[in-house]
Amino acid sequence: MNDKDKRDRDSRKQQDRKSAGHLSPFPYARMTNKPDALDRLELQFRWGPYGIRVLRCHLAIFSPGSIISFHKHSEYEFHFIPKGKGKVILIDQTYDLNEGLFYLTGPDLMHYQESDPDESMYELCLHLDIVPLDTQSEGESWGDDLEASEAKACIAALDRMPAIPIVDRFHAMKGFLDAYRIWEEQPSGFYTLMKQAIIQILLRTTRVFDNLEGKPGIPERDMNFHRYQLATQYIQDNESLPISLEQVAETIHISPRQLQRIFRSEGQTTFRDYLEHIRLSGICSELVHTDKPIEEIALNHGYANPNYLYPVFKNKYEVTPSVYRRKHTDEARGAFNNLTREGSGSS
Q: Which residue range forms the structural domain that includes residue 42?
């Protein structure tokens, strides 16, 4: 064999390994150190509107000529072949199994498996019980509706998957190694990481049959509203400091003119009026709830020249800060005294 033929052969071997999800000789061999490690975990979690319980997750090694007779499961069982060869019968059709293939024996699918007479066959098996759950929820979703849509699309794709061996194009079997490494290292967030590894196997498995028409849309922001939220939050966080339109625009990476338009369209106000509103609201709160001097309160809320506060404050509230403090402090005391008297009367 000449050098070119040898390079071609090595290249083909590397491509074969890549199709099975790895480039090293056989990284899944480490899973033989503790074959039932993942099977021993009590792992169940919620994914969107489904409850998922992991029944088995391991690397099995079938010696040459091993036979698994016809049987079926009421759950989902995934079979990935990282090494070796054999055959499988799905219902009444026979298929060859080779490195880099996978097949799904979904609920109630009869199947038979046999390893090659002269070669061991390795199989990564994931056996899941997937059950619908009550989807009623209250309050803000925080993205739960998006996750639910993706979970539904994934499970629907599993139910549509044809009963034939398929090339693992998107390296779903790598998820087994990820899960085993998590078990080995037992890092912080163990449960969450393990859940993510299992979900990755499901998503990468069904990605082969992605249906773009039925696929949930990618969540996209209303960028004007998002920038308005960023700008107003920045003002609220920094209202005690000198703030300019140009400074806030630079912080959120848009032009001052564009930011001014956003304040008008999203907040029905201007940058200057919003900033003034936030500062004066903070000043009013301190006037009523603290005994700080008015000059100190003004400095705390971005008025470097306290004298400038007086005309601004009176223009909005039609009274001076000192009158506002006296009036609202008296009202607060009166309300407190009324509550105290009512409490005493009821006792």
A: 20-134+144-209
